[in-house]
Each structure stands twice: as structure tokens, then as C-alpha cells.
């Protein structure tokens, strides 16, 4: 069933935390029915498997990315009436099937996994009630960026046989069809007053034009061909075939498709873009935004409460920063503190190798402390690497790459040494805690070691939990005694400040009517971040509503659950056991995490654990 632009179901209102649907609220119950079939824990696996297989057929580019090459000749649709109908049917039938299962004999972990599956299908159905198809691209979220990456030969698309090149040609031809469909949907969006803010359309145009202007010898669009030719042994006939196939894919399909898209955006779409910078300016935009927040964080707080939480957290962190300024004899003026901390040459390294070596030292400092906080630790280690020079200019300051599931490759904590003035010494301890251990590496390596019923579970993650855990790991650094140095503590506060500002700015942009300029100025006045970084941050929030609030809401949820456990258990509370409870079911949504902890507390207090 396809939904008209103006139709918003009771399910949408309920998930957004609003009322007015009467008895329709029964739709949102996550309890599981009993249709007379026998209770069978084995019923979960085929449910997850079937959904996983159907999802790969719906999202062929994603299937390639996770190593299923059956769909390498297809480009993601995501927009046609036929595709939307298939997605709806998959969500609707999967939800009905899940809710019909009798779980009375299931182990707790499987019941929680089913709850999580049901929540995601409900969220997907709510999402269908909003006209997302009219916004098929922006500079952060678009399918053509993945296609360009695949063409480079440095991604998941294989180029090892003639058939591989033929598959890529077919995918490139499908891309041209997607461009026509995207333009059609954006024209419908113009008619329905559902368009991008002007600046995001400009950024997408710049992104595409910049790609098209790169010389062929340096362009990622042509990267796969010379790479394949130099690493494979081909006959002359095969070389001729793959050159012709790849040239047709790029010259006759991808380049014309990107050119047509950029021309349309510049000449037809740009004059019709909306004046508002946030979702509040769209039809039913505030309700749509709350749904976006729920997708990422599913928090019971209203948008206004989230905004006020952000303001309170910013004020608290600023107060702590003033104390650091006084301790360092800079004074209590925030602007002076920010200027002093960012201009002190002694707080920067001169060589990338020195920065990496210093992170190695922090790793050796943190690792011995983990035993006091975790009863079990992942066997998989992590390594610290510099971001390769060829991609450093366009990479984040730091990132984490998960290790292999079989343990043969460790996790990698990447440090970008391209601009050492963006890597102050005072930010190192908190960054290591966040990206490595006990942050992202520790949590993800633990997740990789957990048994799963279905491959579906290997690819499920929740950003509010994962980023919330990483922020909580920074908080643990205080208890570990890692922030006794005021410079290091300032670094911890600086990172936390960014996440607190996101609560204010994201809700401000999308619910309170803030402009892009107002959001930028708020962050300039409130933080030591460079203005260029702030502009990129704000435009990211404009393109990705709701995602930015997930970090702090995830951390706040974990801290609240810990306080609840400490209060209820008293002397029985064991921090090591609590952390194991948080991590033992992988990356779950915040509602499932709350249920997970509540069940553990029940068992602890009843003595049944």
C-alpha cells in the first residue's frame, strides 16, 4: 500500500509521542500473540533469515557492500512505485509474522531480539507515511557516491573477471534510469512543497561538478580499470572487452547521468528549493522530525525536553571549562580559554609518527585499568595507524575500522595526521577512550564475538547505543583517573561539548525554526571549534535530521540506567557485571537496552539470576 503525502497514520503519531488516535494505539503493542501454533524458539531464525534475504534484493548496492555478489549488476531503486510497494509488503508481512509468534518458551535473549526486530519494522512502516521519496539525495546521503566509490576499484565491487566488468556496466546503465526517476520524484516534491534547503542543493551540485572535473588519470571514476589491468592476467581479447565495457559504463552512463543530475539541480531545482533550513518548514515537518529522532534514539523525551537538556549540558560543561581556565591561570572567560588552548604550540606534535607513538603510550596506560571495569574483555586487539596519505585530506580526524569476524584482522584506530594542528595533545586521552578501548573497539569487538542465529544480526547496529557507549567510555575515563591533568580534562569537556551542542542545534534547526546562520553562530559562540568545521557540522545536521542527538541521548540513557542500578542494588551493584549486561546482546536500541537492564535488575533482586 502506498501512502499519499498528506496522510500520517496513528502509528506515526504514537511513535512520535503524540496522542489522538484512540484505540488505534493497540497497533504499537510489542507483545507477541499466540495463534495456536506451538511455542518454538527455532522460529526466530527463519524470520530473520527471510527478511535479510529480501532486504538484499531490495538494496543491491548494500548487498554488494556486505559481500553478496548476486546483485552486482543492479543499482538501488528506492524510488519507484513498484519498489515502494515491495518494501511496504516486506515490512508489513514481516511485522505480522513476528507478532504472531508465541515466545513463552523462548530464552530472554531471543525475546529481546524479536522485540528489536518488531520495533524496526514498526519504525519502517512509520517512515513510509512521510514523503521521503521526494528527497532522494543530498551531499551526505545519496546512492551515486557509493557508485563512484565502486568505480574506483577500492570498494566492494569486484573487477576480477570479464563478467565482473559486464555486471558493472549493467549497474551503470541502471544508474541512468535512477537519475530520471530521482528527477521525477524531485519534481513531485516541488509540487508538494517538499524540497531541500537551498544550501544543501548547492552542496550536492558542487559535489557532483567537482567529481566530474577531476582529470581522468586521477578520477575515482576510472580507478578500477588500470588497477585491474595491472593485477590480472588477461588475453588481448579480454583486455579489449573490459576496456570497452568499462568505458561504456563511465563515458556513456555514469558521466552523462551525473551531468544530467547536476544540470537539473542547478537550473530547475535550485530556484524551487525551500527557504527554511530545518524540517519544520516541510508539511508535517515537526512530526516527521520527531520520527527521525525516534529512528536514531527512540527517546521518550519531547523535542523541547531534548533541546532543554542540551542547553543545560552546555551550561554545565562551560562551568567546568571555566574551572579549568582558572586552574591554568587563563581566567574564566570562555573565549580567552578557547583561544589559549588552541594557540598553544606546545600542545601539538610536529610529526605524525610522534602523534601515533603518543597514542600507543595512551593505549598502554588504559589497558591495565580495564580489568577493574569489565569481567570479560574481547580477545581481539586493535592497532593504531595513520590514515593513508592519499585519502587523508578528506577524512575525519579519527575513526575506527572494525576487525574481521574470524579474528584474523584486528580492529584499527585511524589517526589523521594530515593537519597536526587539528590534533591537539589535550584531546588525545578522550579520543582514545572513545574510538578504541573501552569505546568503539571494545564494544564492537565484543559484539563480533557474540553468537548469532542469523546473518541478519551481524548487520544490525544502533547509533544511539554505539555512540552513547563511546561517550560513556569517555566518562569512565574520569573514574579511571585519566583526567587528572587539566589539559586532558579540557579535551574531555571539549568533545562532550560538541555532543551537547548537537542537542541544541539539531532541535533548534528542525523544530524551533532556527536558520543555518543562527545555528552556526550559536556554535561559534559556544565552542573552540574552527568556523569551517562548524559550518560542515551544521550542514550535516540539516541533511541528517535526528542523527546528531543520538550521541548524547545514548550516553544519558546509559548513565541513567547505571544510576538506577546503583540505587536499587546498593552494595550488590558490581560495575563489571553492569557493563557485561549492557554489552551482552550487541548493539541494540535504547528501548531494548532499558528492558535488558530492567530484566537483569528483576533477576538480581529476586535472586533468580
TrEMBL record:
PROSITE patterns reported for this sequence: PROKAR_LIPOPROTEIN
InterPro entries according to UniProt: DUF885 (IPR010281)
PANTHER family hit by this protein: DUF885 DOMAIN-CONTAINING PROTEIN, GLR0591 PROTEIN
Keyword S-adenosyl-L-methionine listed: no
Recorded superkingdom: Bacteria
Name the record gives this protein: DUF885 domain-containing protein
Keyword terms: Signal
Signal peptide: 1-24
Stretches that traverse the bilayer: none
Pfam families, per database record: DUF885
Amino acid at each position: 500500500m502506498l501512502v499519499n503525502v498528506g496522510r500520517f497514520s496513528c502509528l506515526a503519531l504514537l511513535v512520535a509521542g503524540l496522542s489522538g488516535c484512540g484505540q488505534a494505539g493497540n497497533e504499537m503493542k510489542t507483545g507477541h500473540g499466540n495463534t495456536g501454533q506451538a511455542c518454538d524458539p527455532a522460529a526466530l531464525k527463519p524470520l530473520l533469515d527471510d527478511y535479510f534475504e529480501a532486504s538484499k534484493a531490495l538494496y543491491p548496492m548494500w548487498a554488494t557492500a556486505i559481500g553478496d555478489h548476486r546483485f552486482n549488476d543492479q543499482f538501488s531503486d528506492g524510488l519507484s512505485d513498484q519498489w515502494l510497494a515491495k518494501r511496504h509488503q516486506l515490512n508489513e508481512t514481516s511485522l505480522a509474522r513476528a507478532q504472531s509468534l508465541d515466545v513463552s518458551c523462548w530464552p530472554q535473549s531471543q525475546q529481546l531480539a524479536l522485540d528489536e526486530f518488531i520495533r524496526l519494522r514498526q519504525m519502517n512502516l512509520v517512515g513510509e507515511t512521510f514523503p521521503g521519496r521526494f528527497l532522494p539525495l543530498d551531499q551526505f546521503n545519496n546512492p551515486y557516491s557509493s557508485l563512484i566509490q565502486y568505480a574506483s576499484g577500492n570498494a566492494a565491487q569486484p573487477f576480477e573477471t570479464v563478467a565482473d566488468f559486464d555486471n558493472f556496466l549493467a549497474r551503470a546503465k541502471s544508474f541512468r534510469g535512477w537519475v530520471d526517476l530521482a528527477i521525477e520524484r524531485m519534481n513531485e516534491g516541488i509540487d508538494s512543497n517538499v524540497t531541500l534547503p537551498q544550501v544543501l542543493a548547492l552542496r550536492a551540485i558542487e559535489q557532483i561538478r567537482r567529481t566530474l572535473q577531476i582529470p581522468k588519470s586521477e578520477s575515482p571514476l576510472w580507478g578500477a580499470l588500470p588497477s585491474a589491468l595491472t593485477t590480472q592476467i588477461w588475453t588481448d581479447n579480454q583486455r579489449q572487452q573490459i576496456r570497452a565495457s568499462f568505458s561504456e559504463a563511465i563515458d556513456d552512463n555514469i558521466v552523462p547521468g551525473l551531468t544530467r543530475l547536476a544540470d537539473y539541480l542547478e537550473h530547475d531545482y535550485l530556484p524551487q528549493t525551500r527557504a527554511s533550513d530545518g524540517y519544520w518548514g516541510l508539511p508535517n515537518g515537526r512530526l516527521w522530525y520527531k520520527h527521525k529522532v525516534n529512528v536514531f534514539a527512540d527517546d521518550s523525551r519531547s523535542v523541547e525536553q531534548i533541546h532543554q537538556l542540551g542547553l543545560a549540558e552546555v551550561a554545565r560543561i562551560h562551568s567546568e571549562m571555566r574551572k579549568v581556565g582558572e586552574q591554568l591561570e587563563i581566567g574564566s572567560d570562555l573565549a580567552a580559554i578557547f583561544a589559549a588552548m588552541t594557540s598553544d604550540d606546545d600542545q601539538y606534535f610536529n610529526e605524525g609518527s610522534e602523534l601515533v607513538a603518543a597514542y600507543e603510550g595512551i593505549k598502554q596506560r588504559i589497558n591495565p585499568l580495564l580489568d577493574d571495569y569489565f569481567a570479560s574483555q574481547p580477545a581481539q586487539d586493535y592497532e593504531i595507524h595513520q590514515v593513508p596519505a592519499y585519502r587523508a585530506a578528506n577524512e575525519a580526524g579519527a575513526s575506527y575500522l572494525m576487525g574481521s569476524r574470524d579474528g584474523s584482522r584486528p580492529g584499527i584506530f585511524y589517526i589523521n595526521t594530515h593537519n597536526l594542528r587539528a590534533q591537539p595533545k589535550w584531546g588525545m586521552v578522550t579520543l582514545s577512550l572513545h574510538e578504541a578501548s573501552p569505546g568503539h573497539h571494545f564494544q564492537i569487538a565484543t559484539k563480533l564475538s557474540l553468537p548469532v542465529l542469523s546473518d541478519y544480526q551481524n548487520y544490525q547496529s544502533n547509533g544511539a547505543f554505539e555512540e552513547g557507549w563511546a561517550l560513556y567510555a569517555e566518562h569512565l575515563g574520569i573514574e579511571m583517573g585519566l583526567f587528572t591533568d587539566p589539559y586532558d580534562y579540557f579535551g574531555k569537556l571539549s568533545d562532550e561539548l560538541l555532543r551537547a551542542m548537537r542537542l541544541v542545534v539539531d532541535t533548534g534547526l528542525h523544530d524551533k525554526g532556527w536558520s543555518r546562520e543562527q545555528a552556526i553562530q550559536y556554535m561559534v559562540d559556544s565552542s573552540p571549534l574552527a568556523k569551517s568545521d562548524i559550518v560542515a557540522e551544521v550542514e550535516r545536521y540539516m541533511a541528517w535530521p535526528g542523527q546528531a542527538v543520538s550521541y548524547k541521548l545514548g550516553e544519558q540513557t546509559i548513565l541513567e540506567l547505571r544510576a538506577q542500578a546503583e540505587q536499587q542494588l546498593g552494595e550488590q551493584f558490581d560495575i563489571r557485571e553492569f557493563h557485561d549486561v549492557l554489552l551482552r546482546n550487541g548493539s541494540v536500541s535504547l528501548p531494548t537496552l532499558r528492558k535488558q537492564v530492567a530484566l537483569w535488575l528483576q533477576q538480581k533482586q529476586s535472586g533468580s539470576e
